[in-house]
Amino acid sequence: MTRAISKLKNTTAFLVILFLVLIAYGNTFRAEWHMDDHPNILNNPAIQITDLRPDTLIRAIGIDKSQGNNLARPVTNLTFALNWYVHGTNVAGYHLVNLGIHFLNAWILYLILISLSKSPVVPESDRRQRNVIALMAALLWALNPIQTQAVTYVVQRYTSLTAFFFLGALYGYIRGRLSGRPRHVVAWWGLAAGCYLLAMGAKENAAIWPAAVILIEFVFFRDRHGRLSPHFKKILMAAAILSTLFVGGLLAVFNIDIINAIMHGFDERPFSLAERLMTQPRVLLFHLSQIFYPIPQRLSLEHVFSLSTDLMNTWTTLPAIMILGLLVIGALLTIRKRPLAAFAILFFFINHVVESSVFPLEMVFEHRNYLPSLFLFWPPVAGAIRWQARLAGHGRAAAQMLPILTGGVVIVFAAGTFTRNLDWQTERRLWLDTYRKAPLSARAAVNLANDLARSGNTAQAAALFEKAIHLYSPVKNQFKVIARSNLATLYVQTGRHDEAVDQLVAVLRLVPQNRPARYQLANIYTEMEKYSEAMAQIDWLLERHPDAPRFLNLKAFLLVKDNRAEAALDAIRRSLAIRSDQRDALLAAGVAYAILGDATKADWFFRRTATTAPRDPMVYLCRLENFVANDQDAAAERMANILLKAFALQTIDGFLSDGVNEIRDRERLRRFLAKRIEMIAEDIPISEETS
Questions:
Q1: Neighbours of 480 (CB within 10 A)
Q2: CA nearest 41: which of 156, 122, 131?
Q3: How far apart, in whole angstroms, are the C-alpha atoms of residue 167 and residue 102?
Q4: Average per-residue pLDDT in the chain?
Q5: How many CA atoms, within 13 angstroms, populate the side-chain half-sphere of residue 164?
Q6: Phi/psi of residue 216, each to 5°?
């Protein structure tokens, strides 16, 4: 009977969690791709699988080093690959998986709370009400608006999937610890070990799991007199060995010098190791305030914190350190008296060790609280239930106040999550929200400017790019470079080439090795017909990257413009040896042979180009020019007829008016076409210049 009642309670809890999570996150299925979704999913060929062959899956998870992969987070990458196989670019499928993981995390959390509540250190009143307490604590965690960044932001499956396996490992360990049968112990602990491995494969911060096991042992597996389990030392030793094997093994396999990685990782950050360590206490207190007061207005993809350069420059630095110290010391001193609160506090800080300590990561991200915050609502909910029991002695109305209040908090959290998810619906909405809340963030300004530029608001975009140059960047110079490069693109679009050059020269002063900026500068010099300046940039690039087709193709174009056909053909041969169907290389080859007077070879390359770019007017114009230059009148007339039927006169005139293309004698070509048009219909001039 007792087991049936327990099963009924668990089933009810399962359905309640599922229903409320679906309500709170029901508006996320059409939320767009954002920020790191692009490099990790949309622009990541490794996970874009079309079959389930072993070699395909190996490439997807990052084992195939010939593809330049390094086994980074293989378990999560595999789930992205499977998502791609089923859903492609349909973002709804990815949100469905993320939401499923989040629901399962809430459900496993509920089961863990039920299991830990059986400990003799948990007050008897809490044990009697463990189902209600576990359900409310799991709901307050799952529906907390701060979790949206780990759930709705697709790529943060790295975080939620790690939590899933982390929780699975904890649950397996606890069930094994509570089991009295050796066979069950082996099965449950085998599950725990497997989940720990998978958690490590989902994200690196799962390495801290053995410390969580030790904490559970230290807090909950005591006898009624508060004495530690006789197995504690053995478990402590096993956890230490397990951690050493897993973490040390990974460092050895991938040849990672962790000390060097930590020290040199800060070279690219706008803060030092000491500044990060002094600033993080303020960040952690801010996150705690967000968790317990998670209104959407306080949540943002970006937060800019002033750096604590010493203990006194920011007055909150020392108080924050003292408060955190008091919380930790208080938790350690009250483990026996208040085990739930002590456990929740220590679990929070232990699980922030990786991402909030010495590693050169960005300073603030809300998704980092997804795992650490798991147990924070357990103590207040348990305390509220005890308070309700005391209120029962003061009458029915007083006793009913608490369930109404708790239910109200759940509803407010769910509504806050639903509201916060609205900000994730589109790129424009997310970055507008982020920029309003973090106006000092260069990343927010740049991404909002990018979205404005894509929608044609070039003036607003340019103003934001200019502002972003002077804002906070989480990586030294990163967003200065992006802002200036994108500003250069806008300037080119509006005919301000000299200003575009100034921006790119500034980029190269900051980062001389920046290939995209140097290549962009070479293209702008080419558009300005400053071919020697363009050649200087391309030669610099080819000296360091001699087999880059786009650099070779631009060099070939510049050499053709300078009538250096043989040198151009040398660059073209190197480019086509890498990939034989490149439009730019094939077209340049045709022009080079035309310069050399070999009309037959020139036409052969023009025809090859037409197979790769059949709707490109330039290909037909170059072929026509080759016929005209070699007095092949019949062929020229046929090509002119094809050209005039396939493309509008305005399009053709645009190419003839552009001085920066492969046409060598545009006036002769213009006269030939004008005569041909007069023969077809004398009242249709190609333009005022040719009428």
A1: 21
A2: 156
A3: 12
A4: 90
A5: 21
A6: -60, -45
Question: Which residue do the tokens 């478990």 mark?
Answer: 235
Q: What is the pLDDT of residue 394?
A: 61
Q: Which of 51, 71, 53 is nearest to 61 (CA)?
A: 71
DSSP H or E run through 63? none
Query: Distance between CA atoms of 539 and 448, rounded to whole angstroms?
Result: 35
Average pLDDT estimate for 425-433: 95
Q: Rounded distance, CA 557 to CA 536, Å?
A: 14
Q: Quickly list H helices, 351-477.
A: 378-391, 396-422, 427-437, 442-454, 458-468
The DSSP string of 609-640 is HHHH-TT-HHHHHHHHHHHHHTT-HHHHHHHH
- For residues 424 and 152, the answer to whether their CB atoms sit within 8 Å is yes
Most confident of 113-122, 164-173, 242-251, 402-411: 164-173
| Cα–Cα dist 176/185, whole Å | 4
Amino acid at 314: T
Category of 495 on φ-ψ map: left (φ > 0), alpha (ψ -120 to 50) or beta: left
Coil, strand, or helix at residue 228? strand
CA dihedral 634, 636, 642, 648 (to 10 degrees): -140
